[in-house]
Structure formats: C-alpha cells, structure tokens
Amino acid sequence: MPQETVPSGPVASRLTLPHYVGDGAVHPPLLSPEYRSTVLRAPTRPLVLLPQSFTEVTGPLLGEGRVSPTDGDLTRQHDGEPQGQRIVVSGQVRDSDGRPVPYTLVEVWQANAAGRYRHAVDNWPAPLDPNFTGLGRTMTDSQGRYRFVTIRPGAYPWGNHDNAWRPAHIHFSLFGRAFTQRLVTQMYFPDDPLFDTDPIFNSVPDPRARQRLVSRFDWDTTQPQWALGFVFDIVLRGRDGTPFEDQKGEK
Amino acid sequence: MIPPVTPSQTIGPFLHIGLPWPDGPDVVPDGTPGAFVISGTVVDGAGEPVTDAMVETWQADPRGGFDHPDDPRTPAGPPLPGFRGFGRCPTDGAGRFWLRTVKPGPVPAPDGTTQAPHLDVSVFARGLLHRLVTRVYFDDEPEANATDPVLNSVDPAFRSTLVATTTPEGYRFDIRLHGDGETVFFAL
Description:
The structure holds two protein chains of two kinds. Chain A is mostly beta strands. Helices cover about 5% and strands about 25% of the residues of chain A. Chain A has helices spanning about 55, 205-210; strands at about 15, 50, 85-95, 105-110, 135-140, 145-150, 155-160, 165, 170-175, 185-190, 215, 230, 235, 245. The longest helix of chain A has 5 residues, at about 205-210. Chain B is mainly beta. In chain B, the strands form two sheets. In chain B, strands 1, 2, 3, 4, 7, 8, 9, 10 and 11 form a nine-stranded mixed sheet that branches. The model of chain B has no long low-confidence stretch (mean pLDDT about 95). Classes of the chains: A mainly beta, B mainly beta. At the A-B interface, strand 2, helix 1, strand 4, strand 5 and strand 10 of A face strand 2, strand 5, strand 7, strand 8 and strand 12 of B. Strand 2 (about 50) of chain A pairs parallel with strand 12 (about 185) of chain B.
C-alpha cells in the first residue's frame, strides 16, 4: 500500500509518491491493422517511459457541478420516452488493488436502439429517435458504484471491411483519481454474435481481458415490469506496493 | 504480473455526443490574469487534420501545486481563483484545438530534481485504441527545459515536438500522430 507522506519539518524533502502499476500489456496495441484507422494514427516510434511525478499521480477531481439529476437517466431527457429495450446499467469502479474509486465522474455515450448516433457524421439509413440523445453522466458514490438508465443500443455498420458491423456497445469515459488512471473504453453485451468479426473488440490481446469489456445480465438489478439489468464493473490501474521515495540518492 | 484492469477501447468518431463541455477549454476562467491560449492542430500520418480527436490537459497551478490529496506539499501564496488544472477540447473540422490556461509552476521529479513547467496531455481519437500521452513544454523556458529530466530522457532529435512555440495569443502546440515530425509520446 502507498505510504502517506511527511511534508514538514526536517524531512521535508522526503516525499513519498504513490506509484501506479504498469498495465500496458492489457491494452490493445496502438497499431492494430485489422482496425484500419490505426494505420496512419498509431505512432511509429516506441513510447518513451514517463516517470510518475506529482503531475501523473494527481488528476482532476471533477465535482458534482458537472452532473444534473437527469444526466444519469438517458430515457428522461426529452418529452417522450425513447424507443427500445429499457435497461439499467450499473457497476462498481475499483482500482486493480481492489479499492473502490469513490466520487469520480463517469461519462457515457451511445447509439439509439436502431444503432444510429445523433451525430452529423453518422448517416446510415437507420432512424434517429427524437426522444434519445445518447449522452449520460454520473458520479460514483462512496463505494465507487454508478448507475445509468438507458435503452439497449443497436448494432451498426461501418466501413472498416466488407459487411462490417460493430457489436452493440456503450462508450465509457472515466477519470479515477489520477492522470495515470484515465480510461476510455466500451461496454459490450453478453453473447453478441458480432464479437468474432469486430477488430476493435478483438484488438485486446488477452481473451480474458477482452471478457472484462462484456457486461453481464443480472437479475438483481432487473426491475419487474420495467427494465433489464446489466452489470459492468470497471477496474482502473491501482497502486503497487513499492512507493517511490522522492529523495535524492535514494529510491 | 499484469493487473486485471479494464482494457482501453477507442473513443470512436462520435465522441462529440458525450464529451465536449461548454467550459472544457477553460483551465482558467476567461479574464484570469496571465491567461493565454495554447492552440494547435492534430494531424495523421498523411498530414491530414484529425477532426475526431479530443485533447485533454492536466497541470500544476502557478505555484507548482495540485489541489489533490496525493500532493501533501503546501504551496506558497494564495490559490489562483477558478483554476481547474484540467482542460478538454475536441478538435474541430480543421483538426484544431485550443485551451485557455496559465503557466504552471515547477514540479519536483521523482529523482529529486525540478521539472520545467509542463502540461500533461492525453490525445484520444478514432483509430487510437488507447490514449496517447504527451507533454507541453514552453519555448520561453530555455533554462528550465535544459535541466528537465523528462525532456533530457528524450532523443534530442525529437525534443522540439514537446515544446510549444510562442505566438501573439500564447503558444502553438501541434500534435503529429504518425510519421514525419511525429510527436514524442510517453508510456506511463
């Protein structure tokens, strides 16, 4: 566990910073040619190791002023209800060392039930829904738990390869408590037949890690006569057990 | 051991639905004394502007401090009113982004030396399966830059890609994802 620091007195120079574990092997390689857009956007040179200083182990703790009460219910943002299967998506945000990440902003965006985004560059012939924007925000509670009410998004076609379709997904953006923990990802639904041919889902090299992107159907959060429940727990980088001594000549 | 973290996925081309904030580029409020604008363009390996990217920044305040429980230091002087430390700006139809901020103060490095004023930057875009991390340094800080341990860890041939250049409005910092003039990106 990271040690707290002693910022005063004769040991003022001895600051112990938390250190976040390396997680590079979990994430997709930046160059994943099956996903064609990576080819001209992935850097060509190796990444340079950035030591974790105060800039990296701190981060924005964005407050509740960014979230209004209706932001967590994507079915209540217009005069009428959106078309589609109403769902409750909930889960817990934790560190990889098991600690909940409390009071952190969670942002989501998604297509509507027909698989169409309310966005100028999405113009495939599926209907827009006047009662669905597809944007949600919430804060985790003291135990790192979050909850959204929305509709199940549809799959949609894209131009990556012949007859390419994205599995249904909800985009997630998380801050955690440090710049190092920032994560943007996508939540999928169980048993999607489009997984096998999706280069974005399959860009995650480890099949077990890939499964962490798939929510699970959950009876406990399914509400009778109302909505199906899906649980998506999110694990951010945690701290390792060897905090760095910020003192000259000593590590 | 690889920690069981949730893998990253691309932000995709539709980030504008959910992520822009009206005050996103305002690391400090308009009218803050000493505020300037950093702007630039994100380009891909063909030199084309990346119109579906989002740039985020995080930085110390002018005293070199962070309003965060993991920074136990007590910075000298009063905090800057309205300072958020965080900026977010999606790129526009020409691949441009901008941020309104102030120069951060010096921040100690893990080895005990002092880092030059810098911003940490995350770049997200369609085609980026994981964010790219880079840093902004400032061309009017030559002495501090010369002793910065991070800049000094970078091949001198590529260091200039991390240094914002002075403009009448503030600074310019372009981000080249791939190929000629490619920006230095970091592993955290």
